Amino acid sequence: MKTIRSSDITPESMYLSRRRFLKSAIVTAGAAVLTACAPGLVTEPQATQIAPTSPPETGQGLADELGDRATSFTDITTYNNFYEFTTEKTEVARISQELITSPWEVSVGGLVNKPQTFDLNDLIMKFTQEERIYRMRCVEGWSMVIPWLGFPLNKLLAEVEPNSDAKYVRFESLYDPAQMPGQNAKWFPWPYVEGLRLDEAMNNLTVLATGIYGKNLLPQNGAPIRLVVPWKYGFKSIKSIIKIDLVDKMPTSSWMETAPREYGFYSNVNPDVDHPRWSQNTERRIGEVKRRETLFLNGYEDQTGDLYTGMDLRANY
Amino acid sequence: MLRPRVFSPFQLFIHAASWIPLILLLINFLGGTLTANPIQEIEQRTGQYAVIWLLLSLACTPVHTVFRFHPALKVRRALGLYAFLYAALHFLTFVFLDYGFDLGLIWRSISNKPFIIVGALALLILLALALTSTQKAMRQMKTRWKTLHRMAYVAGGLAVLHYIWAVKTDLRLPLIYAAILFTLLILRLPIIRRRFLKRDSFKIKNQ
């Protein structure tokens, strides 16, 4: 059975206009400065609020802390890199629709005191689902602004208590070629594996997302649960996670295995460190015509810069 | 007859087929169905068509050699010109749509990025071939014309390399193109070609 969330019983259009309503209320209250100080950390509003409807497609009223408007729901859900289904971005939505995401379990173990397997519904009940409006920069040179719903990974990790040997976190996606036809392709090392250093995983920006625009994640976006690490290239934000392990050695991600010279463990967004074959100076925000300058750590330097003090980011790409 | 004034049905077919991708692109553009990232879509499609039409043009002579299919030779030039058309559109999309004619930005993106330079070289070759594609140029340049137009193979190699370097990781399609190009080149080797020609007791000239 699916969990009913506040957002599930609210049409998206209402959800958006409600957001706008709340925003204006906040401005009236003179508390706008406070929201600006907590970028992207606005909590889910109450579902009881009723406001006039407005077109949902524009993402009006939703913006990241830099003031950039959220990408439309349609674009977020029809332009996807999810090689488990196909390498054709516009085909992922169609091919992935049948993915069974309930029941779903995530096992969390490895170098921890309390290894556990969580039912997805329990995870959603256990941790408050927060809205995080994050920029997503793809290594291919395009980007989106996505209103995620999820919870910080550090809350889950606290639950299993990593022991003192744990230095890294290793994530694994579902491997099921019957449901994921792209996994029949031999050129990619399935299952998809990603990793973070423990301090990166503990950072407050790192979330496990379960929704977009207040709705449950759709299969093409990594349903039912996925990682979001907004200061790293999109491929680090592994989708449809079934396994999280605390480990002592740096995990080899699928992309490192596929092309070690091109994709490193860190894969931080960095305009000064080019992909060996193409420049990372600029990006195209989906929905815009003119290219934008790419920001160091995707604009999250204040929150994440300390993680890399003294590190050569050119060598640790 | 050097200058056919009336198109054969096969030629008409080739011309019509060569415009279809461009018409579809325009229809998709006007209908707003060029994915969430339309500029990249235009860039990738035109690039793709340029490579395909270049390979088709390069296939004409081998198809004639192997299958004795004479009409192939009559469309070789047209296919090459369409390859140039799509390559030019690809280039213009890159310069104007993608980079908004921001030369500084373009320079930052291409200096030390060989895949773009390789693509530009292929385009320059195609430009030279397009400019010398007339009967008049053929007559004036005599034997040098043939030497110059063999550069079409170099352009093909550069274009495929450009494609291989540009894709993220899934090399299947560009490698198929590379294999086709390689096969076409093999079939053009004099020693191979002569064997086919001899088979049909065809007088060996030109090569």
List the helices and strands and how they pair.
The complex is a heterodimer of chains A (317) and B (207).
Chain A: H1 12-28, H2 32-37, H3 73-78, H4 92-96, E1 105-110, E2 116-119, H5 120-126, E3 130-137, E4 142-152, H6 153-160, E5 168-173, E6 193-197, H7 198-202, E7 207-212, E8 215-216, E9 226-228, E10 241-247, H8 254-258, E11 282-285, E12 292-293, H9 301-304
Parallel strand pairs in A: 1-10, 4-11
Antiparallel strand pairs in A: 1-2, 3-4, 4-7, 5-6, 5-10, 7-8, 7-9, 11-12
Chain B: H1 9-31, H2 38-67, H3 71-74, H4 76-98, H5 103-110, H6 114-131, H7 135-141, H8 143-149, H9 151-166, H10 172-188, H11 190-199
Biggest β-sheet of chain B: count, sense, barrel?
Answer: none
Quickly count the helices of chain B: 11
- The best one-word shape of chain B is globular
Distance between the termini of chain B: 21 Å
* N-C termini distance of chain A: 42 Å
Based on Cα principal axes, name the global outline of chain A. globular
Largest interface: A-B, 30 and 24 residues
Q: Spans of chain B with pLDDT under 50 lasting ≥5 residues?
A: none
The portion of residues forming beta strands of chain B comes to: under 5%
Helix content of chain A: 10-25%
Please tally the β strands of chain A and state the result: 12
Strand count, sense and barrel status of the largest sheet of chain A are: 7 strands, mixed
Rounded to the nearest angstrom, the radius of gyration of chain A is 19 Å
Q: Low-confidence spans of chain A: pLDDT under 50, at least 5 residues?
A: 6-11, 18-56
H and E order of chain B? HHHHHHHHHHH
Which range best describes the helical content of chain B: under 10%, 10-25%, 25-40%, 40-55%, 55-70% or over 70%? over 70%
Oligomeric state of this protein: heterodimer
State the order of secondary-structure elements of chain A, H for helix, E for strand.
HHHHEEHEEHEEHEEEEHEEH
